[in-house]
Design brief:
The chain is α/β, with parallel strands linked by helices and about 325 residues long. The chain folds into 2 domains: about 25-125 and about 250-320, Bordetella uptake gene, domain 1 (D-Maltodextrin-Binding Protein, domain 2, 3-Layer(aba) Sandwich), CATH 3.40.190; about 145-225, Periplasmic binding protein-like II (D-Maltodextrin-Binding Protein, domain 2), CATH 3.40.190. The protein is about 45% helix and about 20% strand. It has helices at about 1-20, 40-55, 70-80, 95-100, 110-115, 140-145, 160-175, 185-195, 205-215, 260-275, 280-285, 295-320, and strands at about 30-35, 60-65, 90-95, 115-125, 125-130, 155, 180, 200-205, 220-225, 250-255, 290. The strands form 2 sheets. Strands 2-1-3-10-4-11 form a 6-stranded mixed sheet. Strands 7-6-8-5-9 form a 5-stranded mixed sheet. The chain is globular and about 65 Å long. The termini are far apart.
């Protein structure tokens, strides 16, 4: 009987130990929670990563969209409800770092309640203007805003979005006043109003912006990254065209619940880094205007904390807040 109980005890203990070591992981399907709607850039990115991990692990990777509250619902679910065993992960990013300061009520802490696994990709945006606005550079925009304080309207998909805060940072660094016009219906309504001239300028992601730029409906002013984008090589950066030192990239990375075993987190980070070296994935990311961002898990954790601090300053300077 002692021998039987010894075997049972070994079997019971072996499962958690193998998960903690990461050696046999995964032995069943893995879920990645995408906290934004299907079809958006976060969802597309999550599915691309899921497909590559599926192939690498020879195990099903299921993308689950838990949407709402600007990404908070999905993030809170993983932070508060998921087991820290690596079988429920989260794709989160800049909107969640911004949300740490933006939202008055937040039921989780990005730095405390989620374990950073690895940065997946960074997304620059492009500042675009309606062709009737007499500006062709950031320098022109600053000069016009100074001559017309509060008279230039800029749109954003919603309050506190990365594209909103890009323009708030332009305002802060240039010491100019422009009027924010937020849209609750997402980027589609904003793009329509921008093309129609109801708002004059905005920061936008590359996928919705490039078709409008190519047809001349919108004029590209500058990209927000530190270097020019291969998708818009003739468009200068904000830094080189009026605001030296300016750099803003939206970003997304993979997280697990706090308490994820260190060995498993290291294993997951290695798998993320490996798939980001895949030429096909790099090509797919490039079509989104994104760049892969592999880094060690601990470095990613420091990056997340620095992003929370950086955006806290911008949010406070803008006066933005949300429930």
């Amino acid at each position: 009987m002692r021998q039987v109980w010894g075997v049972v005890a070994f079997v019971v203990l072996a499962g958690p130990l193998s998960v903690a070591s990461g050696q046999d992981y995964p032995v069943r399907p893995v879920r990645i929670v995408a906290p934004f709607a299907p079809g958006g850039s976060t969802d597309v990115l999550t599915r691309l990563v899921g497909q590559k991990l599926n192939a690498r692990w020879k195990q099903s990777v299921v993308v689950e969209n838990r949407v709402g509250a600007s990404g908070r619902i999905g993030a809170e679910y993983v932070a508060k409800s998921a087991a820290a065993d690596g079988y429920t992960l989260l794709m989160a990013g800049a909107p969640h770092a911004i949300g740490m300061t933006l939202f008055r009520k937040l039921n989780y802490d990005l730095a405390r309640d989620l374990a950073p696994i690895g940065l997946v990709a960074t997304f620059p945006s492009v500042i675009v203007a309606h062709p009737t606005l007499p500006v062709k550079s950031v320098k022109d925009l600053i000069a016009l805003a100074r001559s017309r304080p509060g008279q230039i309207d800029f749109g954003s998909p919603n309050i506190g979005s990365p594209n909103h805060l890009v323009m708030e940072l332009v305002k802060t660094m240039a010491k100019v006043n422009m009027t924010h016009i937020p849209y609750k219906g997402g980027s589609g309504q904003m793009v329509g109003d921008l093309v129609a001239g109801h708002v004059q300028i905005a920061s936008m992601g590359f996928p919705p912006a490039i078709p409008q730029i190519k047809t001349g409906r919108l004029r590209a002013i500058a990209v927000t990254s530190a270097k020019r984008s291969p998708l818009l090589p003739a468009v200068p950066t904000v830094s080189e065209s009026g605001l030296p030192g300016f750099e803003v990239n939206s970003w997304y990375g993979l997280f697990g619940p706090a308490g994820l075993p260190a060995a498993l987190r290291t294993r997951l980070n290695g798998d993320v880094v490996a798939i980001l070296g895949d030429a096909d994935l790099k090509e797919r990311l490039a079509t989104l205007g994104a760049e892969p961002g592999p880094m060690p898990a601990d470095e990613f954790g420091r990056f997340v904390r620095s992003e929370i601090a950086k955006w806290a300053k911008v949010v406070k300077a803008s006066g933005a807040s949300a429930d």
